[in-house]
Amino acid sequence: MTKARKVPAACARFETPPLEPADELKLIQTGLQSLTDLVRHSRLEGGPILWSLDSDADGVRIFTGIDPLAPPNVNITLCGVMELQGTLVEAASLFVLDSTDAVRQYRARFSKDIADYASLYTLAPRTPEHPRNYIGVKWLAVGMPSPLVKDRDFCLLECQDDFTFNGVRGWARSFSSIQLPSCPPFPGLVRANLFRAGYVFFESTLPGHLKCVHVIQSDFAGALPAWLVRAAMKRRVRSIVEIDTFLRQLRLCGSASLTDDQLVPLSTRRSCFLCSTKFSPFVAKRQCRKCGEVVCKHCSKLWELRGTCVCVCHKCATGAGIDLPPMPTDNNEAPLQAYTCDDEKLQHHRPLPRAMQVLAWVALLAIGADAAKRTPSNPIWKDVLALPNITSIETTLTTDGTYLEVRYDGAKETLKTISRVSSLCLTGVSLPDGLKKFSLNRVSLKTIPKGFTWPASLTHLDLSSNKLTSYPTTTPLPDGLGFFSLSNNKIKSFNDYFTWPSNLTELNLASNQFSSVVKLPSTLTKLDLSGNPLKTIDAQQQWPETLTELALTNTQLAVLPANLPSNLNIVHLASNKIAKFPSKTDFPDSIHYIGLTHNKITSLPSKIEWPNLFTLELDSNAITSIPDDFSLPASVGILALDANKITKLPANCDWLAHLSSITLRDNAISAFTSTCTLPNAISLQNNNITALQDMALPQQMDVSNNPISKINRVTFPEGVFWTTSKFELKEFSLSSDMFDLLSAATDRTYFYPQFTTDDASVKAACGYGTVKKLHDFPISICVVG
C-alpha cells in the first residue's frame, strides 16, 4: 500500500507572479496540443505507441508500451484500460477540483498516493458554455511505494476538454511537465517529469458505457530500481477501478433500497438467482437490497451507500436489474477534433480572453511576415541573437517536436520559445558574450564551421543527438566549461592536438564510434563512454583521479578496465560480455554502485568485500546458485538478481537481513528456508514457489506467476502490500493479529489481492481455528488464536 508521507504545506511556499500574456498564450497552446497528443497515443492499435498486454485482472487490462519517439530518460510507458458505466459528463465531473474539499475527496477516492497539491495558475477556467474545458498549472507531491526512497514532486500543465476522434465523442484530462521559475523543485523531494500522462474517456458502442484509458509516460529521476517504478505506476493505472466503483456507487445511491419486508425470503430459494449455484453450509445466502432476490457471495458485493453497507447483486450493480436514475448527458457543439487538429484549430478551439486573442493574431501576423523574409539558411538565428543579454539557448523535446528556448535579459531570464526546430547549423553564427548554457540537440547539426568560436562565459555545452563526425581542433572549448556532451553522434576520435578545458568535470561521449578511450582531462568527475565499440581497454589506461562515476554500458567489453581511480563511486558495465565476477581489487573501496546486468557471469564469490557498496545489479546473467557461505558487507541495501538461473537460496541467509530490497524475478526458486529474515521488499515473480509457511514475510512482496497453493503461519509488518497473480490457495492460515493486519491493509486501499481460496479446502485444513472472510474478496482464512 502506498502511504503518502507528509510534506510541508506547499501553497505558502510558492510565489506565483502574474504570467506575461505571451507566456500564458504559449502554455494554453501547449496544453491543447498535449491533450490532442494524449488522445492520439492512447490508441491501442494503429497508434504511435506499440502496446502489448501485461496483465488482465478485475476488468482492468494493463499494457506496456514502446514509444520510439519518447525521450531517453522516460523510464516507463504504461496504460490501463477499462470499460465502465457512465457518461462523459459524469467522468468529467470527477476531475473538477476547484475547492479544497473537492481536492481532499478526490485524493481519498482516486489518488491516495498524492501527498500534497497546489493549483498555481488557472489559464482557461471553466465557463457555462464550456463546463468541461479547463487549462491550468498544478504542483503535486506523490508518495513512493517504499519508505526507502524520497517522494517525488511534479510541476504540471493540465488540460481538460471534450474531443471527437474518428467520429467518436470523448473527454480527456492530460498532464505534461513544464518548467516555471515560480515552481522550483520542492525541498526534500525529487523533481520528476511526466512526458505524457492522463485519462481518456471514449463513448462505448454499448449505451451508457465508456472506455477509459489511463496513460503514463514518466521519468521518475534518480537511481530508482525499475521494479519499484513499475510497481508504483501499475498501481496508479489500476486505480481506474476506483472510478468505475465510484460511478456505480453514485448511481446506486440515487435509487431506493428495499426494506426487509420487500426482500425475497431466504427460505424460498435453494439456489442463487443469478448463477444457479445450490446453497449449502459452504455457500451462504445474501439478499440484494435493490431487487430483493437471493444470491450467493460470488454474485454480490457489499456497497457503502450513504454510510451504510448494503448488499447489491452484480446485475443490479450494473444497472440491469433496477431502474437507475437517468445518466446526465450533454451535447457539446464544438469538440476538439483530436485526429486532424492543427495549430490553427488548436488556437481557435476555445474563446480566449481578449488580450490573448490580440496576442494570437499578432503572433500569426509575425509568423507570416517572417516567413516571407526567410532565406534558406537558418533565419531564426537573426531573431534569437537580436535579444539582449542572452544567458542560455537550448533545445527541448516536446510532444509537438523540438523547441528552441532562449533566456535573455540577464538575471531576469525572460523566456522566448521557437517551435518546431528540426534543422540548424552554426554557419555565420556568432554567439554572444555572457552566454552560459548552449544546448543544441536533435537538429541534424553536421559540422562545427571553420573559425567558429565559443563565448568565454560558456559553462555548459551539449551537442548530443546530431550528425557530427568530428570535432575540430581549431575550435577550442572555453576554459570555464564544466559540462560537455557529444553523445549520439558519429565521432570516431579526437585530434592528438586537441586540448580540454581546465575546469571540465562532466564529459559525455556515449553512442559514438570510438574504438579506444580518448585522452581524458584530469579534472573529470563523470565520464560516459557507453555505446561505443571499445571491445578492450588498454591495461595502462590512466583515469582521472577525481573520477567518481564511469559509464561503460554496451561497449563490448569482456574484461574489466584496470587502474580505476580510488575515488570511484559508481560504475556502469551493463550489456557487455563479462563472464567473471569482479575481484576485490578490481574496484576501489569507495565503490557505491556496481551495474553488471546483461553480462555472462555464471557464479558469485563467497564473500563480497567492498565496504561502501550499496547497490549491486546482476540481472540477466547466467548465475545458477548462491554460495552456502555467501556474505555481503552491511552497507549493501539493494541486490538485483532477476533473470538468472537460481534454483534456491542457501540455508545460511543472514546476509538477507541487511538488505532493504532484493529482486529475484524470472529464476527457478521453489522454496525458502523458514529461518530466513527477508528484506523489507522482495520481488519473486515468475519462479516455482508453491508454499509460504512458518516464516516472516516482508512488507512489500511480489509473488506473481508462482504456483502457490499454501500460505500458513506467516507473519508480516503493518502496511503489508503483496502483488499477486490469479492462483488458488488450498490452505491459508494466520494468527488473529496477522489477520487484523491483512484486513486493515486491504480495506479500500491499492492492495487488491488477485488470488482466491478454495473455501472447502481451507475449512478442511483448519483444525483449531475459525474460518473468516477477508472483506468482500473471494478469500477465506483460517484464523487461529
From TrEMBL:
Q: Which domain of life is it from?
A: Eukaryota
**SMART domains xrefs:** FYVE, LRR_BAC
Keyword check for Repeat, yes or no. yes
The chain positions of domain FYVE-type read 272-316
Q: Name one GO molecular function term.
A: zinc ion binding
CDD domains assigned: FYVE_like_SF (cd00065)
START domain ranges (all copies): 146-235
One Pfam family for this entry, by name?
Answer: LRR_6
Keyword Zinc (UniProt): yes
Keywords, in A-Z order: Leucine-rich repeat, Metal-binding, Repeat, Zinc, Zinc-finger
Q: InterPro entries under this entry?
A: Leu-rich_rpt (IPR001611), LRR_dom_sf (IPR032675), SLRP (IPR050333), START-like_dom_sf (IPR023393), START_lipid-bd_dom (IPR002913), Znf_FYVE (IPR000306), Znf_FYVE-rel (IPR017455), Znf_FYVE_PHD (IPR011011)
The cross-references to PANTHER family, in alphabetical order and at most eight, read: AGAP008170-PA, INSULIN-LIKE GROWTH FACTOR-BINDING PROTEIN COMPLEX ACID LABILE SUBUNIT
| Name of the protein | FYVE-type domain-containing protein
From what organism does this protein derive?
A: Saprolegnia diclina (strain VS20)
